[in-house]
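[User] I wish I could look at a protein chain and see how it folds. I have put the entry right below:
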Amino acid sequence: MKKRVVITGMGIVAPNGIGLPQFTDSIKHGVSGIKYDKELEALGFSCRISGKPEISEAIKMTYFTELELRGFNSTGITYGVIAGMDAWKDAGLEINNEPDWDAGLIFGACTSGIDKFRDSIYIVDQLQVRRLGSNTVMQTMNSGISAYLAGKLGLGNQVTTNSSACATGTESIIMAYEQIRNGKALRMLAGSTSDSGPYIWAGFDAMRVCDTRHNDAPQKGSRPMSATACGFVPGSGAGAMVLEELETALARGTKIYGEIIGGYLNAGGQRDGGTMTSPNNSAVRRCITGALKDAAITGDKIDAINGHLTATIKDSTEIENWTEALGCNGEDFPYINSLKSMTGHCLAGAGSIECVASVLQVSDNFIFPNINCTDLNPEITALISNLKIPFQLVEKKVDTVIKASFGFGDVNACIVFSKFKNRNDG
């Protein structure tokens, strides 16, 4: 019999909030974390706005030792360690001297320590390889984030880093969910992180997929579902969740934010319209219906969708895929929102950050607003009622939220979160 999996802890480092209280307040009230970025201006970027969490040295010192911080400049690992350790603490879990064989982690990233890697290239090219320092490898290996977190928390079960472009964070949570559901672990820390700064964002600016029209009004730049959407705003950060086997969580008497009732992963094979940068729409719909089937629910049971919705020309196509996969449209369509309107696109960190926002809606009974889209794309309103795209906070009971992430390489991840109910609750 497959195990039930619940969420008992969460941590967040986002452009519009560090820590659950600030982040929750921000998403409820439509607070944007996007600002003008002088570094991007100095480097000649066309897009000169970004969503970047601000982490002080004092905050770093509460999570890292002085020795660890010597020569340390990995933003992605910094974000991930803070989010991951906060989630562990939030779940009320201890850090023991011996490995916890029943606890592991899957924490995703697409790059690690890109600034450190850049510095290392200059040092090597200057024939000064011995100046690299002893922590260069740990910061630049892609699994650096999972290695740091596993060491700090003493985790002895599966410890790994996954990497699937913008689907990374949602994928990591699904993979950790399956590890517990199949009886291979009692608890897993799951999430993802993304480096920040010009050396991770430059390629997207060169592709001309970023917003260049709102450099003088940064907080209006990220416009999912808007008729005037003109590209995504680059962002960064990390989200983390502690997933736990239900009986273990109940035995501990810990709080439960919600339950994961289903998930699905697939790819479009870069066929039938799918490419390295565009989705195979058939695969997207199969991913959504696969998650519904795994959760044993139908589309009419979904209260809200947290979409991928990046503020590009693909937004209307995504909405069309949702209507077909869920089997509903017009006023029968669930509420839908995009966190990227407030954070920008946090790349590898996006899925996990948005999953934390999705679970908060289930646990606290609200649907956060979309900002910057009062001028809705007419191709979208031809498919669903504009009443289902809230511009203000909606306070209502939320039982089920479905969240999807789609990534470069034509890869997809979809997960279903539900309010926790005992079997005898009906």
